């Protein structure tokens, strides 16, 4: 059994609102948000880790590419636990790579490297970890998306209004690159 807390982001959360407190979260019971066709579940974030890292899962159906973006001060890990996810990454010299990741595969994106991903199979899941001097960005998902108590994918994809993308860099270490092109 997990306890419920109130946080600055939610009236009910299974994550403690301050660091230095051990806790456990049952499967799927982290703070959840829908963004595009995906379900994001946060298990640890800035409040719990003194902004040193976050830990979350992203579950989604096969779908379009997630918009290109970068994190100026944050390193990001993609670990696929089920399904298949295509990760697109550009290094600091402009060389692009793409790789199909399947269950058990790992992808690493350094800070300042443009990247995007596309879920290639229904019922895919990514375990994500982000860390670095830029802090954590996990609350981006519910800020741009919509918080939910549901455990499944959204019945209708949640696509934010275009003007909302412009508010993200001021609050989180996420900069969208709307004109970025991938050349496989």
TrEMBL record:
<dbReference type="GO" id="GO:0051213">
    <property type="term" value="F:dioxygenase activity"/>
</dbReference>
<dbReference type="Pfam" id="PF07883">
    <property type="entry name" value="Cupin_2"/>
</dbReference>
<keyword id="KW-0223">Dioxygenase</keyword>
<feature type="domain" description="Cupin type-2">
    <location>
        <begin position="61"/>
        <end position="119"/>
    </location>
</feature>
<dbReference type="InterPro" id="IPR011051">
    <property type="entry name" value="RmlC_Cupin_sf"/>
</dbReference>
<protein>
    <submittedName>
        <fullName>Quercetin 2,3-dioxygenase</fullName>
    </submittedName>
</protein>
<dbReference type="InterPro" id="IPR053146">
    <property type="entry name" value="QDO-like"/>
</dbReference>
<dbReference type="InterPro" id="IPR014710">
    <property type="entry name" value="RmlC-like_jellyroll"/>
</dbReference>
<keyword id="KW-0560">Oxidoreductase</keyword>
<dbReference type="InterPro" id="IPR013096">
    <property type="entry name" value="Cupin_2"/>
</dbReference>
């Amino acid at each position: 059994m997990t306890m419920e807390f109130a946080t600055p982001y939610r009236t009910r959360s299974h994550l403690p609102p301050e660091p230095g407190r051990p806790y456990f979260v049952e499967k799927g019971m982290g703070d959840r948000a829908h963004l595009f066709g995906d379900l994001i579940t946060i298990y640890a974030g800035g409040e719990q880790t003194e902004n040193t890292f976050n830990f979350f899962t992203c579950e989604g159906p096969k779908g379009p590419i997630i918009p290109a973006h970068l994190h100026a001060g944050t390193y990001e890990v993609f670990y696929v636990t089920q399904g298949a996810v295509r990760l697109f990454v550009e290094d600091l010299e402009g060389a692009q790579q793409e790789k199909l990741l399947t269950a058990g595969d790992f992808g690493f994106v350094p800070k300042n490297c443009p990247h995007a991903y596309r879920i290639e199979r229904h019922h895919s899941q990514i375990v994500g970890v982000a860390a670095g001097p830029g802090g954590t960005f996990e609350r981006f998902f519910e800020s741009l998306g919509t918080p939910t108590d549901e455990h499944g994918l959204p019945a209708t994809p949640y696509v934010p209004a275009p003007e909302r993308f412009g508010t993200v860099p001021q609050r989180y270490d996420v900069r969208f690159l709307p004109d970025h092109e991938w050349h496989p």
